[in-house]
Amino acid sequence: MAFMREFFNLSTSAKRFRFIAVTEALTWVGLLVGMFFKHVTQTTEIGVKIFGPIHGLAFALFVVIALATARELRWSWQVTGLALLSSIPPVGTVVFEWWAVRKGHLAELSKRYLGSKTPTESVPVP
Fold it and tell me: What single string gives the DSSP state of each residue in 10-35?
């Protein structure tokens, strides 16, 4: 239960970024499943009708929150570009979030992962 409480805690830009990154990825997956049923099995369009607009909103929010996070956390243009590009492939936003935490780009989320190490030090990935 603590994980869910922490996941829905949107008190900082890093936590808001993590939330929208996961949300965008889940809506991408939902849309892909809907597209499978619409185009491959040709049984129903309901998945696309539901997840299409939801994913569109999640995508737009991801771009806005990524830019706001980049500004607040002073990301380089390269990190900001990677964040924006991560929204194109399915589940790319989650991969970027995972990378950004481990490289020290997501403030307190990175501090928790890195511990006493600075973002430039090598950290073994579990």
Answer: --SHHHHHHHHHHHHHHHHHHHHHHH
Cα separation of 72 and 53, whole Å? 28
Distance from C-alpha of 12 to C-alpha of 119, rounded to nearest angstrom: 19
Q: How wide is the angle at C-alpha 29 spanned by C-alphas 91 and 111, nearest 5°?
A: 35
Residue 102 to residue 36: CA distance in whole angstroms: 34
How many residues are listed for the chain in this entry?
126
Q: What is the pTM of this model?
A: 0.84
Q: CA nearest 66: which of 28, 106, 7? A: 106
CA distance 52 to 63: 17
46-68 residue pLDDT tens:
999 999 999 999 999 999 999 99
